[in-house]
Design a protein that fits this description.
Layout: H1 5-12, H2 20-23, E1 27-35, H3 39-50, E2 55-63, H4 65-71
Parallel strand pairs: 1-2
Helix pairs in contact: 1-3
């Protein structure tokens, strides 16, 4: 389903919870099946960083180029987990 970037970001805002005791000081790798605009990875990473994770990286199986080209040819990835 096509959703613009802003709606995808709102859809996952505050949708994830990380326990501070479990993630504080850890290096974490997120795995996602499809990268569309980065909203899911962004929301997860932000929650983990807010709860004290030292570093958050992501691995994505595939990217939905058709969607990213409709919204932004260069999806923005927050600096916190950009290489």
């Amino acid at each position: 389903m096509y959703l613009p970037r802003r709606l995808r970001e709102l859809n996952v805002k505050q949708a994830f919870y990380a326990d501070e005791k479990s993630v504080k000081g850890k290096r974490i790798i997120l795995v996602d099946d499809i990268y569309t605009v980065g909203a899911t990875i962004g929301a997860c990473a932000q929650e983990l960083l807010d709860k004290g994770a030292e570093e958050v990286s992501a691995i994505v199986v595939c990217e939905n180029f058709a969607h990213t080209q409709k919204t932004d040819p260069h999806p923005k990835i927050p600096h916190a987990y950009r290489e």
